[in-house]
Specification:
InterPro entries: LysR_subst-bd (IPR005119). With 127 residues, the protein is mostly helical. It is built from 4 helices and 2 strands. It has one domain.
Length: 127
């Protein structure tokens, strides 16, 4: 994997930290970075035209699974658990629309979590 060109996530991105963790777990300190920063769209377009590697959230790989231009490699990337939160002011009245929106977000992410888990279990990992 270290012989391939890489796309580095934008500076400050949690994915850049994941890439650094992966490098350390492989015993490497540097890689061939051919493209750095930019948007997810530009990184994906670059990947379509090259054999470059990058670190992507599984949800992105899952989203593009039918396009057949991204292949997930069976590599465990050490990373911390991350969470998404909804913040509300404690001293304000609770609006029904806000509660409904918060519930929709919770339910949507729960559904996505189950879809991704099923996909992870169904995928035949190959190189």
């Amino acid at each position: 994997m270290l012989d391939y060109p890489w796309i580095a996530p934008p500076p400050g991105s949690p994915l850049l930290e994941d890439l650094r963790s992966l490098l350390l777990s492989l015993g490497a300190t540097e890689i061939k970075i051919r493209y750095s920063g930019g948007s997810l769209t530009s990184a994906i377009n670059y990947m379509k035209e090259t054999d470059a590697l990058t670190v992507l959230p599984h949800s992105v790989v899952f989203t593009f699974r039918k396009e057949k231009f991204i292949t997930a490699l069976p590599v465990a990337i050490p990373h911390p658990e991350r969470a998404l939160g909804l913040l509300r002011l404690a001293d304000t009245p609770r609006a029904p629309a806000v509660d409904a929106f918060a519930q929709h977000i919770r339910q949507s992410f729960d559904n996505l979590k189950h879809l991704i888990k099923r996909h992870e279990q169904a995928v035949v990992w190959g190189m």
